[in-house]
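User: Some background: our group keeps a shared notebook of sequences we're curious about, and every so often someone picks one and asks for a predicted structure to add to the entry. Today it's my turn. The entry only has the sequence so far, pasted here. Could you supply the structure so I can complete it?
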Amino acid sequence: MNVDDARARLGALDPDDGPAELPSTILAKLTLDDMADGAEFQVGSLKDGVVHLDWNGTVRREGARLVGEADHTWTRKYWYDAIGLEQYLDLVRRAVEVRHRVHGDVALTHYDDDGAYVALRFQIDTAETNLRRAYDELRRIAEEVEEAARQAADEVGLRLAEIAARLSGWGSRSHDVLVDAVGTAQTADEKGRSLEELCSQLFASVPGLTVNGRVRSQTEEIDISILNDSSDPRLRREGAVILAECKNWTGRCGKNEFVLFKEKLENRSRRATLGFLISWNGFADTITKEMLRGSREEILVVPMTGKDIRAAVQNGSFADVVFDCWDRATRV
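Assistant: Of course. Here's the predicted structure to add to the notebook entry:
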């Protein structure tokens, strides 16, 4: 879609068509005046014939102003966070009410719990008239409102993960023993858990990185979530959250696994720009083309192999291996 197409879509208000779907690249060239009163848009990109939204919300013109509406509609059946769905959205609702009293720029517009689904929507006001600046401000405010709930969910998940790890003896085996276990494990679960435990210990050895362990969210499961407080210039410029995915397969990881992992990074509310995809038996050549395709994007996926992990254990410096792999990924 180009700018002229966007103006035509936004200027011809037809409620039956639903919100216009715009790519983020053209927002800066559009203003409130390009929209009919009552027109709405969402921001996303077309991938394989499907629009992937950058934000679960809409932007609408109401008279001489733009407003956003953040949409949290989830089903209990597919909610996997350690904190319950109703408790999570109740925290979001409370944050909306507090911000409404203090700043007056948000307001709860809908809340419903029918037993299967819980739906919460809140409106956000902005004085911006340029669509790019307005969209960025709306997302920033939405993320600030949701931040406390997200932090609470992460903290509960971390505490449960620590208890489960302690009960199962997680962390009691040395790096050398774990390397042997990764290579000799018989079942798929044993292979995956051994590599995950080894990589968790290794990432925790890097100054400034704190490993949270496995994270299960509403839509996905992440092997290792890492809080980034590193002072190293290369890591300091990355997001607050680093993700790692471990694959101890008999074969090599390919393009599909690379793309799926990258989507997990994209789904972390712009908090994650760096991820490590760890494949014990290496990677297919197809990932090189995928890395080249995304080389201009902010998100960086760093491939890491079993050879890299074994070298880290032998040399006793995982940080050096991390940065070597990081350097290789940035030179593709």
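Suggested note for the entry: Confidence is low (pLDDT under 50) at residues 216-220. Residues 3-157 form one domain.
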